[in-house]
Automatic annotation (TrEMBL):
InterPro entries xrefs: DIOX_N, IPNS-like_FE2OG_OXY, IPNS-like_sf, Oxoglu/Fe-dep_dioxygenase_dom, Plant_2OG-oxidoreductases
Family: Belongs to the iron/ascorbate-dependent oxidoreductase family.
Keyword Electron transport: no
Domain Fe2OG dioxygenase: 188-290
Superkingdom to which the source organism belongs: Eukaryota
Keywords: Iron, Metal-binding, Oxidoreductase
Protein name: Fe2OG dioxygenase domain-containing protein
GO molecular function terms attached to this record: metal ion binding; oxidoreductase activity, acting on paired donors, with incorporation or reduction of molecular oxygen
A UniProt-annotated Pfam family: DIOX_N
Organism: Camellia sinensis (Tea plant)
Length: 340
């Protein structure tokens, strides 16, 4: 556990060689484009007219950007702040305290590690630590979670319940917009729900390091609380754009399975994470994931003679194998599942 970057990085003034990425994989010194990030006000979806308008905005953002931010979503600002505070407390704990509870072991449901689970075989490491654990059903998961800080289970339990409700509400709006039956994403398509917390410590040379490489998310959808610090970037029209941090907003990222189900009416967002030299950055991701045995294919309601299926049906566990083999590279992964 001593290798957690958050445990030793404060004493480092130059970037270790094992964290220096090749030039073609770095963010470099280029400033990404600022753009009008799509922002969805969920409070407007309370009446029929506003709901229809909100749904169209979501579909447009999902098609053109692969992500959008939601505001006025109903999740308590106090709860969001408390969750972020507790997680910062967690990563500030001494390494030996964390080591007593967690091991770097991919077979464990609650995992704490640095860079990726493939740390020992990586040629270069990401400047991040990650804590991941299941959240659904909550009563079956709580005993797997950290016991420290003392508020962890209480606060993150409440947070997980509220965020799960929110993301499933957003999926219901997408269902309505696509013409799918209500609850299409219930059961198998959302059977696995994970909390994934990333800690990106301040970095001595952000131009050489990466928090996370360019990738797509293999799941159905990701909802991210990114705090108030820049770092998330999305690839659009051949250029990187910054996802501007908005107070109390969530970023919703379309995953590969949602692209397949929508038959390309929605697109998965390629994204990456850059570091900074000024402050630590903590983000809270919540993943909606199919069961590993689930077969995923374009929704039958979206297929007709004029709109043939673009993707073949496949088990999610097979897709994950391909995703790992292609290291999350968007075009390479999706090409493997296209019908010829």
């Amino acid at each position: 556990m001593a290798m957690l970057v958050s445990s030793w990085s404060k004493d480092v003034y130059s970037l270790p060689e094992t964290y220096v990425f090749p030039p073609d994989q770095r963010a470099g010194d280029l400033i990404p484009l600022a753009c009008n990030n799509p922002i969805i006000d969920l409070n407007k979806a309370v009446d029929n007219h506003g709901r229809s308008e909100t749904i169209q905005q979501i579909l447009k953002a999902g098609r053109e950007f692969g992500f959008f931010q939601v505001i006025n979503h109903g999740t308590s600002q106090t709860l969001m702040n408390e969750a972020m505070e507790v997680l910062k407390e967690f990563f500030d704990m001494p390494a030996e305290v964390k080591e007593r509870v967690f091991k770097v072991d991919s077979s464990k449901k609650c995992r704490l590690y640095t860079s990726t689970l493939n740390y020992d075989t990586e040629e270069v490491h990401f400047w991040r630590d990650n804590l991941t654990h299941p959240c659904h059903p909550l009563e079956d998961c709580l005993q797997l979670w950290p016991e420290n800080p003392p508020r962890y289970r209480e606060v993150l339990g409440k947070y997980s319940v509220e965020v799960s409700k929110l993301v499933l509400r957003i999926l219901d709006l997408i269902c309505e917009g696509l013409g799918l039956e209500n609850g299409y994403f219930a059961d198998e398509l959302s059977q696995v729900q994970l909390l994934s917390v990333n800690q990106y410590p301040r970095c001595p040379d952000p131009s050489l390091a990466m928090g996370m490489h360019r990738h797509c998310d293999p799941n159905v959808v990701t909802i991210l609380k990114q705090g108030d610090i820049d770092g998330l970037q999305v690839f659009k029209d051949g250029q990187w754009i910054s996802v501007e941090p908005l107070p109390n907003a969530f970023v919703v990222i379309i995953g590969c399975q949602l692209q397949i189900i929508s038959n390309d009416k929605l697109k998965s967002a390629e994204h990456r994470v850059v570091t900074n030299s000024e402050v630590d950055r903590t983000t809270i991701g919540y993943f909606i994931i199919p069961s590993y045995e689930c077969f995923v294919e374009p929704a039958k309601n979206l297929i007709d003679d004029c709109n043939p299926p673009i993707y073949k049906a496949s088990q999610y566990k097979e897709f994950l194998g391909t995703y790992a083999e292609k290291i999350g590279e968007y075009e390479a992964v999706m090409e493997c599942y296209k019908l010829q």
